[in-house]
Amino acid sequence: MASSNDRLSRFQALLAGKADLAFVPISTDLDYLAGIARDIPNYGATLHPGGWLEGAWLTPDAGPVLALPRMTAEYGGKGGMKGVDLRVLGDWDDPERMVRDILAGFRLPAKPRVAVSDFAHAESLVHLQRILPDAVFVSGTAILREMRVVKSDEEIALMRKAGEITEAAFAQVLPKLTFGMTELDVIAEVDYQMKRQGSLGPTFTTSLYPVGPEHPLMFGRRLESWKRPLRPPVALLFDFGASWQGLCYDFGRTVCFGAPSEEQMKVHRLVMESQRAGIAAMKSGVATCEGVDHATRKYLDDAGYGEFFRHRTGHGIGWDVHEPPFLTKGDGTLLREGMMFTVEPSIFRTTLPSARVEDVVVARPGGGEPLTRGFQDLHVVE
Q: What does the alpha-carbon distance between residue 231 and residue 381 come to, in Å, rounded to a whole number?
């Protein structure tokens, strides 16, 4: 894979003429640029004194300074890094003074343009505005996106490995599925198996959408839905993904508890064929995001199920689970070889047979290359 130095150098070249200073907190952007890994996220914030300065500070022609609160440096394991200009803020030190010292070494103009990662907290901007009152702020992530949107062969290989971990976890989950287990039982097993297979953890909150006569579809009411025992007839629509070396996978399949009805089998077949149509349309240099969405959606529209395909066909994916551009109406972005997207058609109905599928797909001149290909048939638990 391209080294951190290569990416940093390219980013600095992109900054020239667009910004005099960049601040990149510990985030996806810094992981991509410098290999400074993110940790498993917390539901609630855990704050350290001076945490707003945490991250890399750099200019188009000056190497980065990595500023860290003591807790991040010691307990977060980031303080032992070599080859970087590391500044550690003590618990009782003044963070603004440290930042002023860092910026003094950069010799900024009187009215600097400051590129700030979209992942920075508002607290960081509030302090920066006080330190640099005449600064103009721009999105550092938008500048970096020029590098991130097309994936290298090495990044695609890492994503392929993330897909292998995801499918290996799913293979371990399937024989453990039994009537009467709750939604939470299933989700916990999926998360456990992903970690067992080598993932740091799920790349997003693992979701399960059961649909059946006694299992009305619930969106966003996890504490209610998680308690429900799963008994046939019910279709389980999976949505989860494993991480690997900073890359984020996103995967979906449908499982039936109890023998599927003719309508359930039809709905599953239509969703799988719709996905195949979308993947075939992903011809780099020819297709647009909007065109892929149309090809996928038209299949279900023609079959009379279009109203139940309630969301976009897919999204860019890579170091984040959702990245622009998006496979949706109105996005005229031309596909370039190496772009990665999810292709995830679905039929979501409140209590009637439903199905979904999702794989990560690389845009290629002859059509998309899916990175996962397993479990194409409807899996039945009886």
A: 10
Task: Give the span between the Cα atoms of 20 and 222, in whole angstroms.
Answer: 45
Q: Report the run of H or E that residue 341 belongs to, with start and end.
A: strand 340-343
Whether pTM exceeds 0.70: yes
Residue pair 309/346 in contact by the 8 Å Cβ criterion: yes
Instruction: Tell me which H or E stretch contains 148.
Output: helix 140-148
Per residue in 131-169, pLDDT (tens digit) is: 999 999 999 999 999 999 999 999 999 999 999 999 999
User: For residue 138, what are the β-bridge partners?
Assistant: 115
CB distance 208 to 185 below 8 Å: no
Cα separation, 69 vs 166, in Å, equals 35
pLDDT in tens, 52-107: 999 999 999 998 999 999 998 887 777 666 668 999 999 999 999 999 999 999 99
Sheet holding 234-239, edge to edge: 207-211, 234-239, 254-257, 379-381
**Helices 153-173 and 183-196, axial angle in degrees (round to 10):** 130
Helix axes 95-104, 122-131, angle to 10 degrees: 60
Question: Rg of the chain over CA atoms, in angstroms?
Answer: 23
Matching residue, tokens 């619930």: 218
Q: Which domains, from first to last, does the chain contain?
A: 4-148 (3.40.350.10), 153-381 (3.90.230.10)
pLDDT, tens digit, 9 for 90 and up, residues 229-262:
999 999 999 999 999 999 999 999 999 999 999 9
Degrees (nearest 5) of the Cα angle 20, 25, 30?
A: 90
Q: Tell me what percent of the chain is helix, strand and coil, each rounded to the nearest 5.
A: 35, 20, 45
Q: How far, in Å, CA of 136 to CA of 19, rounded?
A: 9
